TrEMBL record:
Gene3D superfamilies: Leucine-rich Repeat Variant (1.25.10.10). This is HEAT repeat protein. Pfam families: HEAT_2. InterPro entries: ARM-like, ARM-type_fold. It comes from Ureibacillus acetophenoni. SUPFAM superfamilies: ARM repeat.
């Protein structure tokens, strides 16, 4: 069955006589094919003609539908008069009904429009939604402003986490694209409206039609710390408008995103993956934000943004590496180049491995990010030739990252070197070498505190199969040893779903696990609950809150409170299927 976006695009393409529409980006990083193809010359002609007509009406003292001589009063005491600026028409003073959005239409026609909007908002009938969309678009073409008034008033009917939101946004964008009063209405709503759904709808629609004239309003909304969940929608609009200078100015605002809201950060990362729509000059600015960023949780936004440029970014980042003696900067550039995962990236990093001999460890990390098996012989050669322990350790971890079992014999001889022993144990365990799991768990459970800490940190690098092994091992061990492995399982940013039932089994085993073990399990559950990475649901924590002993209840209250604070107002939910 075709998706709503595919059906919608088919409808639009048919109406436009077979022309295709560009993609626009939403906060989930989804490319939607129902974006507006704006004809610049057509837009200029339309706006100039409409502006001349409006000015003539004003000169003749004829009242227009939203242009009057005396500014009307509003219930919120907002000014309904604003100066609409557009480079093609200059400035026009307009009065926009922001507060009431009252259409000048017959009751019968209003009822017809409202019923169509209800049909379009129906999440259970795609055909009905599409047919209503087409009917509303036709009505709006003949009476744009009044239909827009009703659409905004009735936007409350739409589930903004549902695919029907695309229909709503595309409808408003279509009606406003070549209509001066419609574009003025979007600017007015962004300028003054206190209704969040109206603001969100106007932001998304303005992005679709690439309305650069609303950039000041976008910046004003994004800087409002009380509405930081709208930053993502503002960023989405900037990406869709595709104004590089505006994007450069917007970068510092990203730092206002709060820590702990994984959903917002995830949405920002997905939108950043489309930064390639901007000019190459944007690359240096994103890179500077990355290396100056002191908030670790924001760095993936910038790094994914850089990787989105693909091979366009490689020579620029390579020059940054050559001109820097800062190992942190070189490591960041190297990892981003590697993350582009192109043969050109591999070739460039191999060249830099020779050109920058004092930065080999950092460049090897970049080669590991390529996941390119063609780089494995170079890594092995580097391991065998270097005398520097740090470079050896980095080579071993890189080979383990994307090598296979055939590399195990070459790594084993480094087991006798205390400088590389732990890396080799990790590598052999990851590669699946026979008996390597016994070696790994023995060192994890019985090694020195330093060795245990190192291997615990390596756990965050393990693939799913090994993480499941760790969880299964924890289930088999006495509580004191289980605690060590549970502590390690708190390190990764994602755990395979299969770990959830194993944790639940450990939580409910007989005899009952000790308080520290149960507390550690609750912490792991809380780290991922409510996200796409969820292992066990919130119900497990809530049930435990009712039955656990007082010392554990206090920890549970903290975990649940942290989870709920992350889930509070923070961007639009993921689309429902």
């Amino acid at each position: 069955m075709a998706t709503i976006s595919e059906l919608l695009n088919q409808k639009i393409v048919k109406q436009l006589g077979g022309s295709t529409s560009p993609k626009y980006i939403d906060e989930n990083g989804t490319e939607n094919n129902s974006g507006m193809e704006i004809d610049v010359l057509k837009l200029k002609r339309a706006l100039v003609e409409q502006a001349e007509a409006i000015r003539k009406e004003s000169d003749d003292n004829i009242l227009g539908d939203i242009f009057v001589e005396i500014e009307p009063e509003t219930e919120t005491n907002n000014s309904s008069k604003l100066m609409y600026q557009h480079p093609d028409v200059g400035g026009i003073e307009v009065i926009v009904d922001i507060d009431q959005l009252i259409p000048d239409m017959s009751d019968e026609l209003i009822e017809k429009v409202v019923n169509l909007i209800k049909d379009m908002a129906d999440t259970n009938n795609q055909k009905k939604s599409l047919d209503a969309y087409v009917a509303l678009k036709n009505l709006g073409n003949s009476d744009t402003l009044n239909v827009l008034y009703i659409i905004f008033r009735k936007s409350v009917l739409f589930d903004f986490s549902h695919y029907t939101r695309d229909l709503l946004v595309t409808l408003v964008a279509n009606l406003c694209a070549y209509n001066l009063k419609g574009r003025a209405l979007l600017k007015g709503i962004l300028n003054q409206s206190t209704v969040e759904k109206h603001v969100e709808l106007a932001l998304r629609s303005a992005g679709q039609i690439r309305a650069k004239e609303v950039l000041p309003e976008i910046f004003s909304i994004a800087k409002n710390e009380e509405k930081n969940h709208l930053i993502i929608i503002c960023l989405e609009a900037i990406v869709n408008i595709r104004d590089t200078e505006a994007a450069i100015q917007f970068l510092p605002i990203i730092s206002n995103l709060p820590d702990g809201n994984n959903r917002l950060i995830g949405q920002a990362i997905k939108v950043a993956k489309h930064f390639e729509v901007f000019e190459d000059s944007f690359i240096e600015h994103v890179y500077n934000e990355l290396i100056q960023c002191k908030k670790r949780y924001l760095r993936p936004i910038y790094s994914e943004g850089l990787k989105s440029f693909g091979v366009r970014a490689i020579p620029i980042l390579a020059e940054f590496m050559k001109s820097s003696d800062d190992h942190f900067h070189i490591r960041q550039c190297s990892k981003i180049i590697g993350g582009i995962k192109s043969p050109i990236a591999s070739e460039q990093l191999r060249k830099l491995l020779v050109d920058l001999p004092h930065s080999q460890a950092e460049i090897i990390e970049g080669l590991a990010h390529t996941k390119d098996v063609e780089n494995l012989p170079y890594l092995l050669e580097c391991l065998q030739k270097t005398s520097r322990p740090h470079v050896k350790r980095t080579c071993i971890k890189a080979i383990a990252d994307f090598g296979d079992i055939s590399y195990a014999p070459a790594l084993k001889k480094y087991l006798v070197d205390p400088e590389t022993e732990l890396e080799v144990i990790y590598a052999l365990f990851r590669l699946g070498e026979k008996d390597a799991d016994e070696l790994f768990f023995d060192k994890m459970l019985n090694g020195t505190p330093h060795e245990q800490n190192r291997l615990e940190n390596f756990t965050s690098l393990l693939p799913s199969k090994n993480l499941i092994q760790v969880a299964k091992k924890a289930l088999m061990l006495p509580d004191m040893d289980s605690m060590i492995l549970l502590s390690a399982l708190l390190k990764p940013n994602v755990l395979p779903k299969q770990v959830g039932p194993l944790l639940n089994e450990l939580l409910n085993r007989e005899p009952k696990s000790t308080t520290p073990v149960r507390t550690s399990i609750y912490r792991i559950i809380g780290k991922f609950v409510g996200s796409e990475k969820e292992l066990l649901g919130m119900d497990v924590l809530v049930k435990a809150l009712r039955t656990e002993e007082p010392s554990v209840k206090k920890e549970l209250e903290n975990i649940i409170s942290a989870v709920r604070s992350k889930g509070e107002s923070g961007g639009i939910e993921k689309y429902k299927d």
